[in-house]
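User: Structure tokens for this complex, please. No commentary.
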Amino acid sequence: MFPWVYGFEWHAGYLIFLGVFFTVAVVVVSTVMLALFRTFRDFRQGRAAQLQWASNFHDLPPQHRACRHALTGELEGRVCEQNFDCRECTMHASLLAKQSSAPACCQESEIFGMPVPLDRYYHRGHTWVQAAEDGSLLIGLDELARRVIGKPDSLTLPAPGTTLVANSPALSLSRNGSEVRILSPVDGAVTAVADPGEDWLLRVKPAGNFSPRHLLSGLEVKAWYLRELERLQLSMGLPEGAPSLADGGVLVEDVASVCPKSQWDTACGDLFLNA
Amino acid sequence: MTRTDKASPAAHYAMIIDLDRCEGCGDCVVACALENNVPPPNPKATPRTGLNWLRVFRLEAAGRDVFLPMPCMQCGEETPCQSVCPQKAVELDPATGIVGQIPERCLGCRYCMAACPYQARVFNWWDPQWPAGMEQTLNPNVSVRQRGTVEKCNFCHGRWHAAIEKAAAAGGRGPVAYTPACSEACPAQAITFGDLNNSEFAALTNKPESFRLLDSLGTGPKVFYKTASTAVRAAVTGAAKDTPHA
Amino acid sequence: MHSTHLIARGACRAPLPRFLMWIAPWVALFALGAYAMFLCLSQGLFHTNMDNRYAFGLWIFLDLTVIALGAGAFFTGFLLYVLHKKELKAVINSAVVIGLTCYSGAMVVLAVDVGQPLRAWFTYYHPNVHSMLTEVTFCITCYLVVLAIEYVPMLLKNRRLKLVPSFLVFEWELHKLMVVFALIGTLLSFFHQGSLGGLFGVLRGRPFAFREGLAIWPSTFFLFVLSAMAVGPSFVALTTWMVEKLARRPLVKPEVYDTLGRISGKLLLGYVFLKTVDTLLWINQTAPDRGFAAHRFYQHSAFGTWILFAEIALFGLLPAFILFQPKLRQRRGFLILAAVMACAGVTLNRFVLTIQTMALPTLPFDRFLSYWPSWQEFAAFGAIAAYAVLVYSFSYRYLTLFPQEREIALAEERS
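Assistant:
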């Protein structure tokens, strides 16, 4: 194997054979090392959270990756390719440019008996963001999330000072023995957590200028909500002929208490984008 | 290592076995086993799992029993077993033309056994065992093999080694003459051993009654057989139609 | 924590007691085989029915077979990462697990099969590069490492493990480099699949197996590569179908089967053609040149010419034809039947080269020999089969082997 080992031959065949072997060994080892090195670099450069989300997003079935413009019917059947981060999306930018002006609507909306206030932005992971007067952002769970989760057995909020990255887990809660991670809607640093009883959960100081471009607002919220209710029904695997929202039913107050554990776990994964 | 720089001019040891003389007494087999530290067969061994460096086939031809002693043929051209060994446990010694099996290096993969057309190779299916006291009779010039390794005839390499050391002590260089145990033991003198570089001996192998087994495979075996009977020759080489059983 | 936490969200898996009932017999078989292996390793290979004449037996035959069937791992990876056949993403994970179990199982059996397994490192340290077995040893061990690396991303995506941030990021980075492993895997597989064929093709002392070829490689080298590539996708389709039947749910979209069948069919057709040419050359030239009329090989009752017909026509041409016809392969029953036949054909080919080569006499006065494996040989291989089933079952339960599973389930509910 080496020139100093018995049996080594200075023959072309022998050298080619060992040359190929050592090349393969070096390529395999260095590729693994490269992946390890890149992993460390990602952490050092603070890109780890984004990549985690990218990896998770990648694993979502296409039905759960619908583009926001597919929800409103602008782009039929389009699947998001930007990990739900419209800030970089050229398609989103071009569609925004076409719209004359964003319709201003701040009235309360109600969808199937659920209050959905339109004075705020919504994240695809069922959190809302509301700008406070002091420039900070309030983050809370929306009504659908509240009804699906009900009263969590435990709630783990990030400590003030924690840096949040959009689409990476901000807080986690558990119910029925399942852990659910709620994704952060924005980039920023946690400045305060809510006392029990408040409707918001986190107060966040945005990183740089807050851009809500990747968040849902206005009319598209309703289209999204309708799609989410449909997704919820599908992921809970409701049998055919069961009473459904389309028949005029309303979502119960505490889904977790009326739904088998495994179905609830699946539904939470789908709804909160925990693949 | 079987190579030795003491023997600079190469020898090509070969064997001629006279089928008309062999009577199948089996003395060669016993002498071979004693010389080469082949252990007694395990009680459970069958003819197919036993250890024999030299086997004697029996077949019927020309109205008589023909006995066919078969050692390793020491193939000299594209030696089938040597090229297949993954870890150089088989070596063709250019100084002697002997195909050596180095049991200490053998993995026991048995690829060489599959490659050998003469079934000259045997495997240690059991741990070798000698009855109490019999280990005193072991030949110190020949290493004992382990379970799980392949072994075979090497033209009594231990004897060659002893001969060359003796010659070297006397200041001699070059190929030496020696006699393997089977040849020495044969009461009918059916086994002749010699060096193909010796023209007198080589002439014996070129006689019309001399032939080799499976010559057409092109492996250059160095064990020759001879018989005056064409019927016997046909039976042994497969030219005859009705080939009786061993 | 509850065990369901290891199972991916939305993946419907049997309750734990039923899963345990499923694996129990396999664990028992594995234990029996492990005992047989222990007997062989601790006392010697006399526990097998191999002998000096039948130096290779059941183990070598089945090793060759599972390695051919496991070729789906490298070939699917090649098709997906190098030729960008995107639809095969649906089965790549499953193919990698199959490959990993086939190769690691074969390695274990080989370690029992050799008489002195502790000397295996000699082959690496003092290699004889002229031996096909050396090439096989090097390539298979390297490829096993590659397969293990390819398995790592799957493992790190387990529901529990992926919660560790560094695992998921490493998985992401490793996955981006997967094309390197796909290429290395292809290179290694090409050579060891070929060398496994070369193993027998170079046996100049065994005219039944010996073949002429190209440079240092006998024709069996190329035929083995091609047949493994042809049957690999078939085996992936077959295993996917079996898992679907056992799990009672669809796991991949129909076009995945179609792609696998189409590729398998085309390659099988090419293989059958070349195998026929090779056989004719061997009958008319190679064997006679070495002093053996080919009909002599087939005069032993058990191994008549029917075996040639079965290998080339029945289990080669026929499945190739079925898989080649879009209308036929679109019917799942036909596709699976053809896949089974293709796998049987390659199994028979490996059987012929190992067992029949050993059985046929070379010396004119010698006779045809038969051999029946001992219970230890069957059990040891049974252990490997059980091991493969266990690894696959655990992987299917706790990892995502079929990424389309959830998508299909959701689409089915919708309709």
